[in-house]
Amino acid sequence: MKLKQGDSQISKLIALETERQKNTLQMIPSENHCSPAVREALGSILTDKYAEGYPGKRYYGGNQFIDKVESLCIERAKELFNTEHVNVQPHSGSPANAAVYVATCQPGDTIMGLALPMGGHLTHGTKVSFSGKFFNSVQYGVDEKTHLINYDELAKLVQSHKPKLMWVGATAYPRIFDWAKLGEIADSVGAYLAADIAHIAGLVAGKAHPNPVPFVHIVTTTTHKTLRGPRGGMIMVTKKGIEKDPELPKKIDKAVFPGLQGGPHENAIAAIAVCLKEAATPAFKKYAAQIVKNAKALASELKKYDFNLVSGGTDNHLLLVDLRNKNITGAEAQDLLESAGITINKNSIPYDPAGPFKPSGMRLGTPAITTRSMKESEMKKIAGWINQVILNPNSAGRVSAEIRKFCKKFPLPK
Ligand SMILES: *Cc1c(COP(=O)(O)O)cnc(C)c1O
Questions:
Q1: How far apart are the C-alpha atoms of 24 and 11, rounded to whole Å?
Q2: Which atom of ligand 1 approaches the CA of 197 most closely?
Q3: Which residues bind (6S)-5,6,7,8-tetrahydrofolate (predicted)?
């Protein structure tokens, strides 16, 4: 039975969400629109199968085709990111990171990560997360003036705390990471260095951001952000990681299953395989480059309207805007822009005086609108709309109508 007949309530809600996505601009930088091919694999019959274990070593029978699916996914990931070992089973980014702790640390060990209010992720040692509860978490920040990681300060902090595991990765850092320098810093105390490229995986795959693989031991990622796949996670172990600890691939695999998870979501793994094939094409490389071009165009337009950008601009897919000179909070901007058909999110800015519940910033990005084939000239329009709505909240209704019309020229992927 089709969904429409079987469950009209859910069917209607999906139709409404589809219309929302079509008629408005999705500018939350962690979001994207995956291809119908990815969604077809995700919605496939593979969801019915139990496959605890790994290809060739399963606890259940009937996995001859599932094994091929998962192996293909692993091979594609290894090739795309140029790494030695990949686990494609983590249900999402946070479970992938949890597995890295299980593989490399004991409870109480010292770990380091970029603080959440400075652009880091919950799983990098925030107090409310398991990572801050079960480990001795030391958090680093960004420089108060430049908003960049101060590598000299970080090196000192690492020397004094000697972490077992160090995370580098962010949810709201608009600049490039210097992986080589970070590798040296971690090596100076023998720490495991994990690059969490959840946000930028698509940029790395498309060569629009340097690949951390040569410089770090472990790379974790989500598959649904710039990489444009289904919701999911992956953990990679690099050649450098295997040189540091030959058992690391085995430790990672054991941490995922049976350490943290049971049966893998093979439908999601098939969809990840499809997205990895897409991400290896010249078209995807162009897409990744266009994401960055669009973000830079949006940044320069917003600056003309006197918006203050954290770090002064962007090198990747996202912008963090300090709204204090606009007399509007991040939450108000989020609601106002949503009413105008632009979905962004409120976000803390580094050293935010307002605290995490009423942050002073907004975060926006170009992955999803670039998937819809928008280019620099469209960024100009969007910056104009953002400015109008924030200057004059009464214009939201008119802008929303204009955006609805504009969106018809930029359909979701077919
Ligand atoms: C999104 C993100 C995650 C977590 O991903 P979920 O799939 O939401 O659990 C982890 N790390 C970073 C840096 C992220 O941006």
A1: 20
A2: 13
A3: 116, 120-122
